[in-house]
Design goal:
The complex is a heterodimer of chains A (165) and B (284). Chain A is α+β, with helices and mostly antiparallel strands. Chain A has a domain at 16-86: Roll (SH3 type barrels), CATH 2.30.30.40. Chain A is built from five helices and seven strands. Chain A is extended. Chain B has helices at residues 2-15, 18-21, 25-38, 44-61, 68-82, 116-119, 125-140, 143-151, 154-162, 172-187, 191-207, 214-224, 233-238, 242-253, 267-275; strands at residues 93-97, 104-107, 111-115. Classes of the chains: A alpha+beta (165), B mainly alpha (284).
């Protein structure tokens, strides 16, 4: 049943989140094309609602009213702008903490099936599975062939520094 | 091994003049022990041994997805990513867990897991790469090892670190540390470790030639899911808020990644593998 729900979230190859509502988390500009120096089509205030059309790298094509344009994907969050403080995770996350720690897995509708805190605190090793895992491993040669086959060019890029506190 | 020999030699040399110099052997031995404890760095074989034990436990909690094609695919993506890092020679192992939970895990020594539930939320190979790269970063920075060490008694660490590999078998110190490592998945790492893995993850994915925004895209998808969905419960409990993670990446990524915006996401290749596996379905 859960799979049905998951599938119905309607992702697709070419238009992930197409038709989904999203909202801006900062004032941002709607661009005519997915480039920072493209013409600005409109200015969007913080907490504006848009409809997602598609994503292209760091840009999301959206509809704001009748206007279509591109915004930086990270200026958006999926879901309902109207919902109160939808950093959602801290409020509801805390709720989960209470439920999960209070619990016998009552937040999980099907009891102790699958991954659960209980199982992680009272683990049973599975050496056969570990062997199978080792059997799935790929060697360097095959990995390089794979990269090549996808025309994935290795790039040089330094790690990002930690943000100043 | 060398340190033990040196210690023995030292003791033999001074034993005859002990009384003359009024040496306290107890103190000497204590100091040698302390010196050893101070460097309870696990060498690579130990790290792998500990990580394998933790991986075995994780597999006891959630079985491997019995689909060779998906497992081989994830391993190829993962290994290609690992080759772009400072530890390409680790015995990297990638596994898809047959579980509806949305989550991913790393264990020391190069073990990385992602659940079927999380795969089902992804749209492209670049998104898969982003998540795998985040987990790879945890291994590179030895976050789990540090957390295990933090919680363990020094004697326990020294016992494991100092013990010769051949004796590991039923070593109680190893077993205890494996247990501690497994429990970590129920508690989570420090927030800063997660943020660091995010920062490193986007870089590793970009180095491997992928669209840099795969990981942010996955985080955005998860953030848009119904927070009541129980498949998210454990992930929410053990990670910082998605909004915070997205905000940090937002600030960090504008600028340095502009020149990588045209890197492929290989959505069709990802979809082909997944759709044949029952994890995903072709859209109408």
């Amino acid at each position: 049943m859960r799979w049905l729900i998951v599938f119905c979230l309607g992702w697709s190859v070419f238009a992930a989140h197409a038709g989904e509502a999203a909202y801006t988390v900062r004032a941002t500009e709607l661009k005519a094309k997915p480039f920072s120096d493209a013409a600005t089509v409109a200015s969007l205030a913080e907490n504006s609602t848009v409809e997602v059309l598609t994503r292209q790298s760091s840009w999301m094509q959206v509809k704001s009213g009748d206007t279509t344009g591109w915004v930086k994907m990270l200026s958006l969050r999926l879901g309902d702008a109207a919902a109160p403080k939808k950093s959602g995770d801290s409020g509801l996350g805390a709720l989960f903490n209470v439920a999960a720690t209070g619990g016998s897995g009552s937040t999980v509708s099907t009891g102790v099936r699958g991954l659960s805190e209980e199982k992680l605190k009272n683990p049973q090793p599975d050496p056969k599975a570990l062997e199978q895992l080792n059997g799935y491993a790929t060697d360097e040669k095959a990995a390089r062939r794979f990269g090549k086959s996808g025309k994935l060019s290795a790039q040089q890029l330094d790690y990002l520094p930690a943000p100043a506190k | 091994m060398n340190r033990k020999l040196i210690a023995l030699f030292f003791l033999c040399c001074i034993s005859s003049s002990a009384s003359a110099f009024d040496l306290d052997f107890g103190k000497i031995i204590g100091n040698i022990q302390k010196a050893r404890l101070a460097t309870t760095d696990f060498d690579e074989p130990k790290e792998i041994e500990l990580g394998s034990g933790i991986a075995s436990n994780l597999l006891g909690a959630a079985p491997l997805l019995q689909n060779r094609r998906v497992q081989a695919y994830v391993n190829r993506v993962g290994m290609w990513l690992a080759l772009q890092t400072e530890r390409p020679g680790l015995p990297w192992r990638f596994g898809v867990l047959d579980d509806d939970d949305v989550n991913a895990f790393a264990a020391p020594g190069g073990h990385v897991f992602v659940t079927k539930g999380l795969l089902a939320q992804m749209h492209s190979e670049a998104e898969l790469a982003g998540v795998l790269a985040h987990e790879i970063a945890h291994v590179l920075r030895k976050h789990h090892l540090a957390a295990i060490k933090k919680g363990a008694r020094t004697e326990l660490l020294a016992e494991f670190a100092g013990e010769a590999m051949e004796n590991q078998g039923e070593n109680p110190a190893l077993i205890k540390l494996i247990g501690a490592g497994t429990e970590l998945y129920a508690r989570g790492l420090d927030k800063d470790d997660e943020f660091e893995a995010d920062r490193m993850g986007v870089v590793i994915a970009t180095r491997a030639g992928y669209d840099p925004y795969g990981l942010p895209a996955v985080l955005q998808t998860l953030q848009g899911m119904n927070p009541q969905d129980s498949s998210l419960a454990l992930m929410f409990k053990t990670h910082p808020a998605l909004d915070e993670r997205l905000g940090l990446l937002d600030r960090l990524m504008s600028g340095p990644f502009d020149s990588f915006e045209n890197q492929p996401d290989h959505a069709p290749r990802f979809m082909t593998v997944m759709s044949g596996s029952g994890i995903t379905t072709e859209p109408d």
